[in-house]
Amino acid sequence: MEFKEAKNKFVQTWGALGSQWGINKTMAQIHALLMVSHEPISMEDIMDELQISRGNASMNLRALMDWGIVYKEYKAGERKEFFTAEKDLDELAVKISRERSKREIKPALKVLKEVSAIESDGTAAEKHFVDQTSKLYDFVLKADNVLDKITEYKDNWLAKLVVKIMK
């Protein structure tokens, strides 16, 4: 397989995986393209490579920057903006984990806390509902706390050891 074919296959596969992870295909493809590029890429080059519109490229680049995994760069003498992705895979995992927690886990915890705190009238169905949603809240909270500890691994010797063992 030649380089161009391999690169395209990677970008397409990463895009397909992205939709399974809860982000749109184009966002994942842009991220993949930037992640494997050895130098920053202009929006025009991204549009050309992926055959997408300026609006689509702009919207998805903004979302990737909001996640903290893509950065805008400027080149002296160039009017174009260039983009690059986080190359450190450990840092990438930490940023994605934190962002997913903020966008998905924390809102779910809020809802679970709210629904498990209803005043039960004593029926078996309500008791069961409160019991199950309380257990689910406790479980998700523990999982989120573990995730927080792991993402703080750079300052935590124990988490560093766990990550080292997992490798």
Name some characteristics of this structure:
single chain, mainly alpha, 7 helices, 71% helix
Instruction: Report low-confidence residues grouped into runs of 5 or more.
Output: none
Strand sequence of the main sheet, in spatial order? 1-3-2
The run of helices and strands is HHEHHEEHHH
Beta-strand content estimate: 5-15%
Number of helices: 7
Shape: elongated
Radius of gyration: 21 Å
Based on helices, strands and strand pairing, what is the structural class?
A: mainly alpha
Query: What's the main sheet like?
Result: 3 strands, antiparallel
Beta strands, count: 3
Mean pLDDT: 88
**Share of helical residues:** over 70%
Distance between the termini: 29 Å
Protein architecture, described:
This protein has 167 residues and is mainly α. It contains 7 helices and 3 strands; from the N terminus they run ααβααββααα. A 3-stranded antiparallel sheet has the order 1-3-2. Helix 1 packs across helix 2 (25-36), helix 2 crosses helix 4 (54-67) and helix 5 (89-116) runs antiparallel to helix 6. The longest helix has 28 residues, at 89-116. The protein is elongated and about 70 Å long. The two termini are 29 Å apart.
